[in-house]
Amino acid sequence: MSSLKNGSLPAPTKRSQFSCHFFFHNTDAAMLEPDAVNKHLFCVQLFDHVAECLGDFMEKQKIKDKKLPVGFTFSFPCAQTKLDEAVLLTWTKKFRASGVEGMDVVKLLNKAIKKRGDYQADIMAVVNDTVGTMMTCGFDDQRCETNPATHLLSEELRHIDLVEGDEGRMCINTEWGAFGDDGSLEDLRTEFDREIDRGSMNPGKQLFEKMVSGQYMGELVRLILVKMAKEGLLFEGRITPELLTRGKIETKHVSAIEKSKEGLKKCMEILTRLGVEPSDEDCLAVQHVCTIVSFRSANLISATLGAILCRLKDNKGVARLRTTVGIDGSLYKMHPQYARRLHKTVRRLVPDSDVRFLLSESGSGKGAAMVTAVAYRLTEQARQIQQTLAEFRLNTSQLLEVKKRMKVEIERGLRKETHKEATVKMLPTFVRRTPDGTENGDFLALDLGGTNFRVLLVKIRSGKKRSVEMHNKIYAIPIEVMQGTGEELFDHIVHCISDFLDYMGMKSARLPLGFTFSFPCHQTSLDAGILVNWTKGFKATDCEGEDVVELLREAIKRKEEFELDVVAIVNDTVGTMMTCAYEEPTCEVGLIAGTGSNACYMEEMKNIETVPGTEGRMCVNMEWGAFGDNGCLDDIRTKYDQAVDENSLNEGKQRYEKMCSGMYLGEIVRQILIDLTKRGFLFRGQISETLKTRGIFETKFLSQIESDRLALLQVRAILQQLGLDSTCDDSIIVKEVCGTVSRRAAQICGAGMAAVVDKIRENRGLDHLDVTVGVDGTLYKLHPHFSRIFLQTVKELAPKCDVNFLLSEDGSGKGAALITAVGCRQRELDAQNQ
Length: 834
Ligand code: ADP
Ligand code: MG
Prior knowledge:
Blueprint: H1 12-18, E1 20-22, H2 34-38, H3 43-60, E2 68-73, E3 78-82, E4 85-88, H4 105-116, E5 121-127, H5 129-140, E6 144-147, E7 152-156, E8 169-172, H6 191-198, H7 207-212, H8 214-230, H9 251-258, H10 263-273, H11 280-316, E9 321-327, H12 330-334, H13 338-349, E10 353-359, H14 363-390, H15 396-414, H16 416-419, E11 427-428, E12 441-448, E13 453-461, E14 467-475, H17 479-482, H18 486-504, E15 512-517, E16 521-525, E17 528-531, H19 548-559, E18 565-570, H20 572-583, E19 587-593, E20 597-604, E21 617-621, H21 639-646, H22 657-660, H23 662-678, H24 689-692, H25 699-706, H26 712-721, H27 728-763, E22 769-776, H28 778-782, H29 786-797, E23 801-807, H30 811-833
Parallel strand pairs: 1-2, 2-5, 6-9, 9-10, 12-15, 15-18, 19-22, 22-23
Antiparallel strand pairs: 3-4, 6-7, 7-8, 11-21, 12-13, 13-14, 16-17, 19-20, 20-21
Helix pairs in contact: 1-14, 3-4, 5-14, 6-8, 8-9, 8-11, 9-10, 9-11, 10-11, 11-13, 15-27, 18-19, 20-30, 21-23, 23-27, 26-27, 27-29
The protein binds adenosine-5'-diphosphate and magnesium ion.
GO biological process, one term: glucose metabolic process
EC number: 2.7.1.1
Keywords: Acetylation, Allosteric enzyme, ATP-binding, Cytoplasm, Glycolysis, Kinase, Membrane, Mitochondrion, Mitochondrion outer membrane, Nucleotide-binding, Repeat, Transferase
């Protein structure tokens, strides 16, 4: 543990020295007193005993004071849902301790260790000995995927129902010893197999294992010899008590007898010890029997292994399978012919393959240590990733703080003496009321400031059959125009209007026009707006500080093709509010969560100190995107937010917007991914050119990646599309990063909205406010989680308000027309009054 203090990861070899592994299967059962095992021992005693053994071991190694990660080789069939949890399905081999089946052995062992209290251990991985073997071999040969002598396979995950997720590969312990327990091997089982099964501790179970494993091989030979002797085919019919004794012929004997050179001599010795006085012919026959039994074992193993390899081949969809099989087990290691026969048969059964067989050295122990080491590294890695993302996870009190600070900035924007240096500008819009349904007429609308520039014709009809009919055309604004001169920009806009009027056949109509211009503007009337500064992707020269309505009028004049009456300049938030208010009179707030982030609401005139008059209300364009530009959000901004800011067109500006709007979310994600990759947690530590490319991570990809319906494989496909070659683990991490970034965005946006609705409530001296917010923006509309988290946050942070959210349909177009209609009528009224 100490080596991890500075956050760096020790090298793999070093780590495995720190982990301590634990043998716990039959061949190593010597660690447990045999009696204790064979007796029907109780679960508690068993695990106490294991904990004691581990304690002794640590004592001997003088590591009792350290808290080491422990890998637990537990070679019994277990259901594993994660690395450090294993529910024993059933005991096999000689184990019987009661009360363990159906229990999580990690919990049991942890409990036993805790009870002792004399040392600490962290069980990080439960490993089957076969898996251990694969890991050991896998360390030397990365293609190692299977292990027959015990029984293991790594397989494409999508074929396994029990494990969640539909792809990626996971090591599967097939526990193929139980193959045949459903009767599927009945035609192959002999009377000898049945007899062995009947005499075993677990009749009817592990039938395949009983046909192939070393544990039963000697017994099989002995039973055959007994039968042959009984029938007078061997030993002149002599049957001795030794020959009749279970266990008198062991697998090592079978191995010895099958040795080509001294095999017959050994056979003579062994049989003589059984007291049967064999002839040379008997010895030959017995050798033959041994060969048949061990050959059958090798063949059966080959067949099952062949099936697994074929499946691997299918799963991978390759014409030729190249793989390595990790093998452990003394039958394979010690028997003179077994390995050769096995290799030969497997290759014959899976012809289109290059299969390598790799002997594992102490697979159980070393493998457990390695699984543990890997788990340890992953855990440490996961911890560091979580630590990185933790900065983005804001708790309620932090969010309440954001809300409080927004309130402060709102006040500063409204007050005369603080307005100048205020960051949240609270710009008056001269929209004094929401529509009442009496609006009527044909209007032109422009929508500039979003993803698309549009020109619209909006026909509003009042009366019983209220209706709004819209025609629109989308025009591109080339980036060189967006960032060229102001004159070029406005000439381009007028050119588009001209095209639209031609298209509609109404060049001569001189329609009233509403100009949705979604940038901060100082308005002195409905039709005058001085651009404070460009935001989002715009940067045209000679516009900041100018009245954009004037710039438009001048451009129309330059064109000399048509005349228009520019009645209103409209922020998109206001257009959105008006559109929704047309349907729902309680709508008094507008919100945009699209490329940018902004809101407006109906404020009391008496609070808007920058506009004369105290009667009634006026809609205020908050320009809340600039919230934080005075540093008031610095404590929650991360270094990734700073990097995004530094890379932007308007460094230091729109800090809140840069944390929560569509234009920037993908960039935040990209910055985090770059950092995680640098630290070696992603994309194999390789920062690709793609990842270095600004803007590749569009917010629509966040939406796709975060979609609940998308499987990891599809996430990987998306990343692939972006040119990012990811592993399964990478895609999980990327998805979490995206989710964390968009969640924070929705939350801080919600905190801002909570401040707004509470302000309205307090303005009116109410204990409870019912209010509707009109919302527009693709982030809000299409992201799979943004709106839900946003709503939750508003609800939690403004509990005294019942906020209803209404999606606006084309707020920028329809809203501009409605405002223009209201403006036209106001103008008529004013004219009448004069
Ligand atoms: P604008 O705000 O530019 O008027 P929109 O409301 O349509 O226009 O927002 C466009 C922005 O929405 C894009 O810049 C992008 O950041 C984001 N966006 C686009 N597609 C999606 C999507 N599928 N999910 C979430 N956000 C998206
Ligand atoms: Mg828009």
